[in-house]
Amino acid sequence: MGEIQEVQLQIRYQESSGVQGKSASNEAFPSKLWSLNGIRRYNWWFRVILYAFFLLSGQAVATLLGRLYYDKGGNSKWMATLVQSAGFPVLFIPLFIFKIYSPVTSSTTITSKNSPSVFALTLLYLSLGILLAEPNSAETTKDSKGKYIVGFLCTLGASAGYSLWLSLTQLAFQKVIKKETITAVLEMQIFPSLVATCVCVVGIFASGDWKHLEKEMNEYAEGKVSYVMTLVWTAITWQISSVGTVGLIFEATSLFTNVISTLGLPIIPIFAVIFFHDKLSGIKVVALFLSLWGFVSYIYQHYIDNRKSKGTTTDVDLN
Question: Which residues have a Cβ under 8 Å from the Cβ of 31 and sit 6 or more positions away?
Answer without folding.
Answer: none
